[in-house]
Structures are given as structure tokens and as C-alpha cells.
Design brief:
The protein is about 40% helix and about 25% strand. The chain is of the alpha/beta class. It has one domain (about 5-150, about 180-230): 3-Layer(aba) Sandwich (Rossmann fold). The chain has an 8-stranded mixed beta sheet with strand order 3-2-1-4-5-8-6-7. Strand 6 and strand 7 form a beta hairpin. The structure holds S-adenosyl-L-homocysteine (SAH). S-adenosyl-L-homocysteine binds next to helix 1 and helix 3.
Length: about 230
């Protein structure tokens, strides 16, 4: 199976603090509004069937449900999923969470979703191409698929790993491994190989002091990719 158990353990250990806005998952909360707006602009969410792959504690999944989407969130880490379920209950949001691999769900429910999102997850799996292909299989023809991850270069190493994990303590040490970071060209090649068309590539700047995230043309560190499955 396309999973790294050490990665799941890492996220499992953080599960209890997933929704702590000052905690180790704070960057996910800080980047959530800007990525939600971007997704909702390219693929209006209200009334759509949306799948969130690698949903973790459900920060994006819940936000999309609040926009009126019918959301399913999947992950292979049990603890974050249970936190997600509990949080949805507390916040009165309706999201269906399942512990299932994207590859398995793709075989079970091909072409079932209007929109598929897979954010900050590809850099944690052994074979990101397999996840990308599964996302392409899960979305309906004409539907949209969104990815986000971290670029691989000296600047991203300095900012996303050394800066964020060792200098500013924004993320727990060991969160990201340099060799697993993915260049935009690599991600786009994998997406095209899975039959997807590129809709948008945009960079994300996260200011570690103001904690504000903005989208822009600089894809050197964090970036997002929007694709479409041809109709
Ligand atoms: N997508 C969420 C969480 C990102 S954290 C967000 O952006 O808010 C990365 C998530 O990927 C974790 O929840 C982790 O458990 C999950 N993950 C790692 N490997 C996975 C795999 N092989 N299959 C499914 N989820 C995985």
C-alpha cells in the first residue's frame, strides 16, 4: 500500500492539538481561508460532491462543507480522523469521514466526485503519482482536482524546513523531508500523465510573523495546482 507508517504516526501524535489555533497545526488554519477562496472561485463548492484526500483533522473539509458542499474526507491516520469526526459533531458540520486509501476508494467509486482536493499531503506519501492518478480517477469528467505541496529547491529547504521547523518553531521538527518535496513541473507532469489538464498554478506566501498567507506568482516554496478532468 502507498503509505508511510512513520508519517501516519507523526500526524497521529499531533491529532489532539489539530484544532488548536495556536498549536502545531497552526499553519493549516492560517492558510485555510486563502486556499478555500481559491478553490471556491475555480470550482464553486455549493451543492457539489467533494472528496478531500488526506483530510487529517478536517480543517479544509469542514470549511468546504460550510460553503455548502457535500464533503467526504479520507485519510489513513485513525486518530486525526476521529478528531475530525468529533470536531464536526461539535461544530454542527456534516462531513463523512472514512479511513480508506485514495487508491482503494478510486476502485470502489470511480468518477464519483465533482471536486477532489488533496492538500499538503503528497509530500508525505511514498508514491505521489499513485495518489494523483487516484484523484484523477475519483473526479467526474469535467470536474476539478486541487493539489498543494512544497517545492524542492535551496530556498524551500531554507524557508520551509530550516526556517519553519528549526528557527521559528512553526512546525514540529521532522514534519517535512527534503527528498519528498515536489517541484511544480513534477506534479504537473504526473497530473498530465493521469489525464488531467492544468487550470492554474499559483504560489502561496506565508508570513511567519503576521501569520498571514497570500497567493501570488512566486511558486518557490508553497504552491497550489488546479486541474480539470476533460469532459
Ligand atoms: N489536507 C489536510 C491535512 C494535511 S496534513 C490539510 O491541508 O488541512 C497531511 C495529512 O496526510 C495527514 O492527515 C496524514 O495522516 C495524511 N496522510 C499521509 N499519508 C497518507 C496516505 N498515504 N493516505 C492518506 N492520507 C495520508
Amino acid at each position: 500500500m502507498n503509505v508511510d507508517q512513520a508519517e501516519l504516526r507523526k500526524f497521529g501524535d499531533l491529532a489532539a492539538r489539530w484544532w488548536d489555533p495556536q498549536g502545531p497545526m497552526r499553519p493549516l488554519h492560517d492558510i485555510n481561508p486563502v486556499r478555500l477562496e481559491w478553490i471556491d472561485r475555480l470550482a464553486p463548492l455549493a451543492g457539489r460532491h467533494v472528496l478531500d484526500v488526506g483530510c487529517g483533522g478536517g480543517v479544509l473539509a469542514e470549511a468546504m462543507a460550510r460553503r455548502g458542499a457535500v464533503v467526504t474526507g479520507i485519510d489513513l491516520a485513525g486518530k486525526p480522523l476521529r478528531v475530525a469526526q468529533l470536531h464536526a459533531l461539535e461544530s454542527g458540520t456534516s462531513v463523512q469521514y472514512r479511513e480508506i486509501a485514495a487508491e482503494v476508494l478510486a476502485a470502489e467509486q470511480p468518477s464519483a466526485f465533482d471536486v477532489v482536493t488533496c492538500m499538503e499531503m503528497l509530500e508525505h506519501v511514498p508514491d505521489p503519482g499513485s495518489v494523483i492518478a487516484s484523484c484523477a480517477a475519483l473526479v467526474k469528467p469535467g470536474g476539478a482536482v486541487f493539489f498543494s505541496t512544497i517545492n524542492r529547491n535551496l530556498k524551500s529547504f531554507a524557508l520551509a524546513i530550516v526556517g519553519a521547523e528549526y528557527v521559528l518553531n512553526l512546525l514540529p521538527r521532522g514534519t517535512h523531508e527534503y527528498a519528498k518535496l515536489i517541484r511544480p513541473s513534477e506534479l504537473i507532469t504526473l497530473a498530465r500523465g493521469a489525464g488531467l489538464e492544468l487550470l492554474d498554478l499559483v504560489g502561496m506566501q506565508y508570513n511567519p510573523f503576521s501569520k498571514v498567507a497570500t497567493l501570488g506568482p512566486d511558486t518557490d516554496v508553497n504552491y497550489l495546482v488546479a486541474c480539470r478532468r476533460p469532459a
